[in-house]
Design brief:
125 residues; alpha/beta; Glutaredoxin; five-stranded mixed beta sheet; 3 helices; 34% helix; globular
Length: 125
């Protein structure tokens, strides 16, 4: 996929890693409450696995039973566009159709996650 293909789309980036307990906690909710609701309505959602090799990411995807795409960020190059390399991995970034970052979550807080879902619903109208 070329980044140009994402122009005019609502995009969610979910930073994760197999060793991240908080990530593992939120991923089933991302799958059920966001991906399954909006995947056929045009939402582009990418899990971005930070600092792990392909085989580990494949195993992680299988364990978590997620169906949204999980891509590699072996050197944390994508992550460091949004956060300091030493920062915690758990975060979700929502980008609107104009390419502007409009929502950011850190860790997994139910109220914050509800806010993320509400913002996605608003953008997907």
């Amino acid at each position: 996929m070329d980044i140009k293909d994402l122009r005019g789309k609502v995009v969610m980036l979910q930073f994760t890693a197999s060793w991240c307990g908080v990530c593992r906690k939120e991923m089933p909710f991302i799958e059920s409450d966001i991906w399954n609701v909006y995947k056929d309505r045009g939402l582009k959602l990418f899990g971005i696995d930070r600092g792990e090799p392909l085989e580990k990411v494949k195993e992680f995807t299988s364990q978590m039973k997620i169906t949204y795409p999980l891509v590699l960020d072996e050197d944390s190059g994508i992550f460091t566009l949004f956060a300091d390399k030493a920062a915690g991995v758990t975060r979700n970034i929502l980008v609107d159709r104009d390419g502007k970052m409009v929502y950011l979550t850190r860790l997994y807080d139910e109220a914050e996650f509800e806010g993320l879902k509400k913002k996605i619903a608003e953008l997907m109208k």
